[in-house]
Write a structure and sequence with these properties.
Oligomer: single chain
Structural class: alpha/beta
Radius of gyration: 29 Å
Strand content: 5-15%
Strand order of the largest sheet: 2-1-3-4-5
Number of helices: 12
Length: 371
């Protein structure tokens, strides 16, 4: 007997190809534990070759999703669980005695909560409301005491101001809505949902673009982004303006502002993916989807945000788009020029940054080629 020597096994020259489905159950389980096993038959070999190990595949998605979810919950609860006014503009058209008493009562109830603007009469207060200088004005004249409001600011804003001013006056005050919301936008949230949807689409566009073609030439990527932006503007205008009458701004204005928002969101997400690599997706999620939409003013104006969050409402694309759309729809194009400039600045700035990053990345390759 020969110990330790295994008999050789010959393979017939015409043996059938290996088929994992014919393996015994134990062998199949052993192969399934491998990180690169084709558990879904037909996956391309490059996809399997790039697959992470089991530990990374389990931990990274959990940690990433948990971090984004935590930031989302923390930001939105901090901003909206108990909102209070900070330097909220309020108009007063009344005698000095009534105005002083009202201002004192509001300041005692909420120090630094309101900024007061005096108007000569009800007509001046109406003009200020119509041009979005103040969302509401207390008027006391020969016709009695009343509160003029712009319902287009949203029910939450109008309700909070009406409650505060009624308490300050000390008696019920009739409320007159001189700029009501459009019939197709009963709750005043259409502009928020439109902006949120476009920012989400811009984020997804950038992610899918970089996943499909991470080394696409900048000119081609810019052309693709512009096609996406134009299509987004037309789509939202057709749905929100023409289909549902939820955005009463002119069709061309809705198309322009929404298209610029789509461009800015996609360009910003693309730059973050370019700079941070795999971390770019969660970073873009936090900046655009969480901070951008929380500070957009679509739910509550920036004056009701916490002090650490409200400055973002002046610079991030969603807030600019909401201001521009709302101003064009209700307030004689108030804030429209600034919104267009802000959104165009984001798009052009991200394009310039992308160009510089590509140039710097190509310099070592050019030097190596020259040598």
């Amino acid at each position: 007997m020969h110990h330790g020597i295994q008999p050789s096994v010959s393979v017939p020259p015409h043996a059938a190809p290996y088929d994992p489905d014919t393996e015994p159950p134990v062998a199949h389980v052993r192969h399934a534990r491998h990180a690169l096993v084709d558990s879904e038959p037909g996956l391309p070999a490059p996809v399997l070759a790039a697959a992470a190990g089991t530990r990374k595949a389990v931990l990274v998605p959990v940690l990433t999703a948990l971090a984004i979810g935590t930031v989302f919950v923390a930001v939105y609860l901090a901003a909206f669980h108990a909102p209070s006014a900070r330097h909220q503009p309020v108009g007063i058209a009344a005698s000095d005695k009534v105005a002083a008493r009202t201002e004192l009562a509001l300041n005692n109830a909420a120090p630094d909560g309101y900024t007061f603007y005096r108007y000569q009469d009800a007509a001046a207060a109406r003009r200020a409301i119509a041009h979005d200088q103040v969302p509401a004005a207390l008027v006391a004249d020969g016709q009695g005491t009343r509160l003029l409001v712009a319902g287009a600011e949203g029910p939450s804003t109008v309700s909070s101001l009406a409650t505060a001013l009624t308490s300050a006056v000390g008696k019920p005050v009739p409320v007159k809505d001189i700029l009501p919301l459009a019939a197709g936008d009963a709750r005043g949230l259409s502009v928020f949902y439109a902006a949120f949807g476009v920012v989400l689409a811009g984020f997804l566009f950038a992610v899918s673009s970089y996943q499909i073609a991470p080394r696409l030439r900048l000119a081609v990527r810019v052309a693709s982004t512009l096609v996406f932006a134009v299509a987004s503007g037309l789509m939202v205008a057709l749905i929100a303006h023409t289909g549902l009458s939820a955005l009463p701004a002119p069709f061309a204005v809705v198309t322009l502002v929404v298209g610029l928002l789509a461009w800015a969101a996609a360009a910003a997400a693309g730059v973050l993916l370019r700079v941070f690599g795999p971390l770019g997706m969660p970073v873009a999620s936090v900046v655009l989807l969480i901070l951008g939409n929380a500070t957009s003013g679509g739910i509550l104006p920036a004056t009701f945000l916490p002090a650490w969050l409200s400055p973002l409402a002046t610079v991030l694309p969603p807030a600019a788009a909401v201001r521009g759309l709302r101003g064009a729809a209700y307030f004689h194009d108030a804030h429209l020029t600034g919104a267009v400039a802000t959104l165009a600045g984001w798009g052009l700035g991200c394009l310039a940054l992308q160009y510089l990053l590509d140039r710097f990345a190509a310099r070592p390759q050019n030097l190596a080629t020259a040598r």
